[in-house]
From TrEMBL:
Signal peptide: none annotated. Residues 46-150 form the DUF4234 domain. The chain crosses the membrane at residues 48-65, 85-102, 123-143. Residues 1-30 are annotated as: Disordered. Residues 7-21 have a biased composition (Pro residues). It comes from Marmoricola endophyticus. This is DUF4234 domain-containing protein.
Amino acid sequence: MTDEQQPPAPTSPYVSPPPPSYAGQVPATFPPPGAPVADGPIGTVRSTGVCILLTIVTLGFYTWYWYYVTHDEMKRHTGQGTEPAIALVLGILISIVMAFLTPNDVGAMYRRKGMREPVSAVTGLWALLLGWFFFVGAIVWFVKTNGALNAYWRSQGARG
């Protein structure tokens, strides 16, 4: 054997490889407050009139679907807010809670982007105080809440 040809060093299955080199890498940092936040998928714009019609035709069952789907879209988009299954259960068992919770979650999406929130938990007072009067309060609540949600999705690039 010559000096240039060395036999391979014996390897052991118990020897760990050398640690990776982190030279030149910058440690992870968190964005400052108010910085743009990465978003998930954009939700669907739903016609307010069609939603009201579907609610009437299905004798109110469409509202359960609407609660679940809209909260699912908001949760996927922001990673925050009410879990869709919780929204559905609350919508079925104590629906008046949803009159406050849903516009609060919609308003939170606006706040998160640094925009003025057109609806908030206070919007639920329409359903609470005037909901019994020929559904006037419930209709005003839905028009305001669904309209704000649609406007938000459009501001994020949704079509419809």
